[in-house]
Amino acid sequence: MKAMKILLAIALAVALPALAAKPKVVILATGGTIAGAQAAGQDAGYKSGSFQVEDLIKAVPNLGELADITGEQVVNIGSQDMNNEVWLKLAKRLNEVLAQRDVDAVVITHGTDTMEETGYFLSLVTHSAKPVVMVGSMRPATGTSADGPANIYNAVSVAVHPKARGRGVMVLLNDEIHYAREATKTNTTQLDTFKSPNRGKAGMTNAGRVYFYDALATRYGPRSAFSVDKLTELPRVEIVYAYANVGRDFIDACVAAGCKGIVLAGVGDGNATQSAVEGLRNAVKKGVAVVRSSRTNSGITDRNVELNDDELGTLASMELNPQKARVLLMLGLTKTSDAKELQQFFYEY
Q1: Which of 166, 189, 197, 349 has a CA positioned 20 to 30 A from the CA of residue 181?
Q2: Catalytic site positions
Q3: How far apart are CA 267 and CA 325, in angstroms?
Q4: Strands 105-109 and 68-77
Q5: How far apart are CA 142 and CA 148, in angstroms?
Q6: Is residue 314 within 8 Å of 293, Cβ to Cβ?
Q7: Hey, do 20-223 and 237-348 end up sharing a CATH topology, with the first three levels equal?
């Protein structure tokens, strides 16, 4: 009987720490509104990246009950200043952190202005099945009813949820979960600015409770062919915006500047004036990869609908808006310059 009690005590001693262990979540901070501060209490303007990651963690009540949280400041900038150099630095560090056996998930704080682009980029170059959740806010940390703390709490809740694995990079704001591929910012100031106009939300949160919808059907994460491991720079790709009476001047300027790719933010289904289209035709002849997208930000820009891509030598962005088409084209050009192969990326990703 005494031996049985000893064995039971040993079993409990081993089991209880395991039961009590919390998932480990690393927060990689990049700045943005969520870390912003106003010069005065009621100012509409503010300075992004005024607080450090430790400040953000301390500002969230009960966050430690969800997970073992550690933070790391990668950069501290407004996301309007996000660039290729920071993308590569962030992606490489993210992959290093995800590769650590004791890390269960990563949350990335980021400004909302370019969050959709960074998120999509990371979803294509991050090969771990561990959850990655990007989070930001529409109000600065010093603002009335700042939304940052609640968003961070919900982001960690999503990150530690068992069903979050294998879903790729997600975006969390305003109690809504979006896949980075689908999310786009649609309003300058409203809390519900992020929408997923084509395939819909990934899920919802409510005071830390998480409800997931369908998984994303396109290629991302472990199934992606792209990697940043050996990259030190990305090909230059510019976006040309179409509008009534737009000429070819900007297109010609991109070609002259040595751009490897051009994305047309076209009117309607990826169209533009005859002058601009001739400029795109010339760019293709000069060896520049040209992708047609739409400034409408939803719907499909398919091949050979408004313009004859086969005849022009251009590519169609399918569901991707111009800013995300640029991300995929940059990564695509690190693999190939063949138009058919590049087009296949837009079908699959």
Answers
A1: 189
A2: 33
A3: 15
A4: unpaired
A5: 10
A6: no
A7: yes
Task: Tell me the CATH class for 20-223.
Answer: alpha beta
**CA atoms of 97 and 85, how far apart (whole Å):** 19
Q: Which two structure tokens, joined as six digits, stand for 328?
A: 């995929």
- Residue in the structure block whose two tokens are 């010339």: 282
Q: Which CATH code fits 237-348?
A: 3.40.50.40
Contact 71, 93 (CB under 8 A): no
Measured CA to CA, the distance from residue 328 to residue 314 in angstroms comes to 15
Cβ atoms of 183 and 199 within 8 Å: the answer is: no
Cα 91 vs. chain centroid, distance in angstroms? 11
The whole-angstrom separation of Cα 52 and Cα 50 is 7
Alpha carbons 67 and 85: distance in angstroms, whole number: 31
Q: Could you tell me the residue ranges of all domains in the chain?
A: 20-223, 237-348
Helix (H, G, I), strand (E, B) or coil at 295: coil
Q: What does each C-alpha distance from 176 to 10, 104, 251 come to in angstroms? A: 44, 22, 38
pLDDT tens string for the chain (349 positions)? Answer: 555 554 444 444 444 444 558 999 999 999 999 998 876 656 566 777 789 999 999 999 999 999 999 999 999 999 999 999 999 999 999 999 999 999 999 999 999 999 999 999 999 999 999 999 999 999 999 999 999 999 999 999 999 999 999 999 999 999 999 999 999 999 999 999 999 999 999 999 998 999 999 999 999 999 999 999 999 999 999 999 999 999 999 999 999 999 999 999 999 999 999 999 999 999 999 999 999 999 999 999 999 999 999 999 999 999 999 999 999 999 999 999 999 999 999 999 9
